[in-house]
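Input/output pair, single chain:
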Amino acid sequence: MRALVLSAGMGTRFRSERSKVMYPILGKPMLWYVLRALKEVNFLETALVVGYRAEEIKDYFGQAYLYFHQSNPKGGTGDAVLSAIEFWRDYQDYLLVVNGDSPLIKPHTIRNMQKYLHLVQEHEGIKLSALLLSAQLPDPTGYGRIVKDQEGNVVKVVEEKEATPEEKLIKEVNGGLYLFYCPHLLEALFKVKPSPKTGEVYLTEVFQLMHQTGYKVRSFVAEDSSEILGVNTRWDMAVVENLIRLRILQEWAEKGNTIHQPESVWIEPEVVLEGEVEVFSNAMLRGSTRLGRGVVVGKGSIVENGTVEDGAIIEPYSVVKNSFIKAGAVVGPFAHVREGSIVGKNSHVGNFVEVKKSSLGKDVKAKHLSYIGDASIEDEVNVGAGVVFANFDGKRKHQSSVGKGAFIGSNSLLVAPIKIGSYSFVAGGSVITKDVPDGDLVITRPKLRIIKDKGREKLLD
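Output:
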């Protein structure tokens, strides 16, 4: 079975100069969700019909798919399918056709539709010409209604503006996903005439033509009616994004993770939680983040493309980007770890500490108000409050290294490039511009002066 995704539309109601199907939903283009669902079903080949801003789609998805160009993006869905006729003209099996702005489609539903086709052929001896996804809605306003005969076969799909009062009472609506038997689709689609009002060729017109020819068309009701929701406006996208977000949260909760106040938590589709993870409100897990067992992500924290090993804690309002947090480590609160940093096992990066392109060994403590940039810090080092690794000379970044067990006193400034030896001691308030040998104490404080009664001058003013 092959699949064809219609993604050439201009998205006029979306009011955008970009391709609508490339707008991000939880960090991924909405078209990505459709293609992911198809990939899980293992179609033999998948092709995309592109038109408006086609290069944007091709650049993102590359050579993994076949592309067919619809020269008239306002030609309608029927014209879009005809634009890819070389993909399916001689194909003697079923073709799935789906819109690229339908990111809620589930692989499970597509597989069940495939099974239904086989069951009908096996038990009824009927080869269906088409099977369309539908949904039963308590309020079908705005959707195309599915009109059936007494035997349950689809007679036609009628849009609401063209429906009679009786047809408007129908609750079963068109879901916009179809399985077509290609020889019958080829026969019917060439008979469809453009709409006299819009000039568009509507794909849904083939159902009535198939019925008139004597072919059988059925509908398949989705278990979850939200699957049929498409994205026509920015508000539609907001609603769909929220539904996808809640699906992801539900999946991780059912796999043994705790999500506090799920209405406020953001987890993107490629994030992995390994179990017993606890995520608090307003947290965001983005990109290819992976959280080990027992990890805690505090309120308001962001982890993007980060790996956090078992038992580590991301305290509230901390940010971890493109970095590795090892088992048992603590980051935060209000910490920032970024750009390829490593926080070692059982280490603690605390309040208002920033770590950039640095590697911290195990049991390192940097708990308060420090900047660690372009540094390599070995095990059991203590970095005091207010310590700054001065890595930038105005033109270039320079490296620093700190040996095992060193102590960096509060409010010290380490001017890179520099090496602080193992078990050395930097006294608080020092500015260090030269390497410090192993085990030595370094202090650079200016001489303390007390000028007697200087403060009284202000008292007497």
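The CA atoms of residues 429 and 448 lie 13 Å apart. The chain has a mean pLDDT of 94.
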